[in-house]
Amino acid sequence: FWDTRAGKYAKLPKHPKVRNVFNMDFPDSHHLAKALTIVTGPDTVNLTYHNFFAAKEVAQVAYFINVILKMFPADKKRVEAALAAANLPKGKFDTIKPDVFTEAAFKTFILHLCPRPEINEIFTSFTKGKGFMTKEMLTKFLNEKQRDSRLNEELFPLVRPEQVKNLIEKYEPSSSNASRGQISPEGLMFYLMGSETSVVKLDKLAQSHDMTQPIPHYFIKSSHNTYLTAGQLTGVSSPEMYRQCLLAGCRCLELDCWKGKPPDEEPIITHGFTMTTEILFKDVIEAIAESAFKTSKYPVVLSFENHVDSVKQQEKMAHYCRTIFGDALLVDLLEKYPLKPGHPMPSPSELMGKILIKNKKSSTPASKPEQAKKASDDREEHDDHDEQDEEKMKNSDESALFVISSQGTAGQEVTAYEEMSALVNYVQPNKFISFENAAKKNKSFVISSFVETKGESLIAKNAVDWVEYNKRQMSRIYPKGTRVDSSNYSPQPFWTAGCQFVALNYQTMDFPMQLNMALFEFNGRTGYLLKHDVVRRSDKKFDPFTDRIDTIIASTLTIKIYSGQFLSDKHVKTGVEVELIGLPKDPKRKYRTKWSTTPNGINPEWNEEPFVFEKILLPEMAYLRLVVQEEGGKFLGHRIIPLDALQTGFQHICLRSESNMPLTLPSVFVHIEVKDYIPAAFAGTDLHTYRHMLSLNATSNNLSVITFKKELMQMTKNTKTKI
């Protein structure tokens, strides 16, 4: 992670001598305009602050050989040989000036440091032994090996000769080859490492979703107990976590609010009845105000767990929200969206730049505690308690000192007094009673919270009903209280049920969090992802446990693992694990390569049969996960990519750290193929006919299988179109 902070948000020196050097205490020193803080770190917790005052000189950049050697301590001789091949200095204390370390020199260095025999073999198999590809050969290679076979040629034309000519000129290192319209194995390698072969479809990374749908139609990146930097029972609470979560694109943050002690009586945020530290509510609000819209301009929801049973302190909380957030705080309703049954929620676009408060809201807001006790609370509490989990916690080892609820915080929330209640509008928490009751009330602005175990039970017993519920209004899922180590549950089952706010512990970069980070990397990191049509449309119901979706053509994914590049700085054997994450009836097999034949962390190879995942029911809600490990199981890198964002063909998959940060060099070279899945009963049917029959099936309220086959056979006789 990285972030820059200037002006009043920068960290300023406190030592008198330092302040004197920069004249910081003089009225016209303008020191705020000169201050800059850069925050960096491998994750949201372990941060380093680099504090600067305006500098006038920039030192000349030089590359130090000893730094390059340290990157590959186990292969010093290989590094020295590669430097020599590129006519670069190789002495330990030598330096390389930028004008010497040219692009051509760098390419030569890489070719000798990390040879690619597997690409030479692919090249040779396609050219029948020739030492070059002609323009025609490369055209055939691009159209047959790199192109997605599912694409319609009229809508997505084949590669044109002019495009191929440009690629050769761009990537072929030999000017004589390029002038003859030929590309060498080295040129092909550079092409396969270039921007044209990004494993991720770049248009998917950019903001591409329709942001004008009602908010319940989106998955929303959400954090649980945002203030914690470690476990749920002990450790440091920090306002910085709110900044980091927002900078990571998070759009829903949690604030556990408690009454402050005399004499200041400042409201605090902490994990109640635990040994976690306390932070000021005001400091958190300031941190949120500073970072709320740096990464995403779309609305932020603040989920208050309010234990402040003091009118005065709740008034302070409301005052801080109003004055610090200013116009960003949504207080007044949008005219088009009254809080009435049957009316939809506003869209992310309509709430752009706004902060919404989720807090208990009384029907008759009270200004005094005694009034609050008498107030009719037909808005109900949200379902934050699960007896089974609470009992588990009481009987667990961790409960020797603490007894906490399933959400992790002891004690009931209190009624919102008048000032806080006035801030609540489109996100009103209510206790969940039943799906029938929610449908009868038909209030899109009502949200219910579910502990993960309650959510799992609902998915098992009422999945279809929950999908229907989430089309209209919102659900928030949170970890069970026994996760005192701040581990996370898998978000995938809840996404398949259409749940919007799947809240995770951001301080723990385990697999569920990695999946969450990978998913929300798309749509411009807005923190909002439009749910698939099957979990939004009102005219059809969706069962996550189905083995067939009428309107969707399933896919088959084939992936062959060829080699790895710069996987480790040690002499170790390495292996790759590949799995698919999707619907319950999707293929669940996890594949593994054998360990590389020799200890080699720079360019190991695997020459094995491709891995096949057949019949992926809903490709838009399935994800490919690839993990690289040392022999013995040590994690080296991973990548999770949505199936609908995968580019087919030969690709280099650049790996990520456990905290989903891009690793500079490590990658895995693969071949990916995604095809439409056609059932064995319809083998030989062309795709155009099969797709058309699916559309008929979708609009005719389910043709019988027999009728479907008869219609299909008739159409197959009458068509010659192949797509």
Automatic annotation (TrEMBL):
PI-PLC Y-box domain: residues covered: 420-536
One Pfam entry name: C2
CC terms in the record's Gene Ontology section: cytoplasm
GO molecular function: phosphatidylinositol-4,5-bisphosphate phospholipase C activity
InterPro entries in UniProt: C2_dom, C2_domain_sf, EF-hand-dom_pair, PI-PLC_fam, PLC-beta_PH, PLC-like_Pdiesterase_TIM-brl, PLCB1-4-like_EFh, PLipase_C_PInositol-sp_X_dom
Catalytic activities: a 1,2-diacyl-sn-glycero-3-phospho-(1D-myo-inositol-4,5-bisphosphate) + H2O = 1D-myo-inositol 1,4,5-trisphosphate + a 1,2-diacyl-sn-glycerol + H(+)
Region (Disordered): 360-397
Name of this chain's protein: Phosphoinositide phospholipase C
GO process terms (BP): G protein-coupled receptor signaling pathway; lipid catabolic process; phosphatidylinositol metabolic process; phosphatidylinositol-mediated signaling; release of sequestered calcium ion into cytosol
Keywords for the protein's UniProt record, in alphabetical order: Cytoplasm, Hydrolase, Lipid degradation, Lipid metabolism, Transducer
Amino acid composition bias (Acidic residues), ranges on this chain: 380-390
Basic and acidic residues compositional bias, start-end: 370-379
Protein localization: Cytoplasm
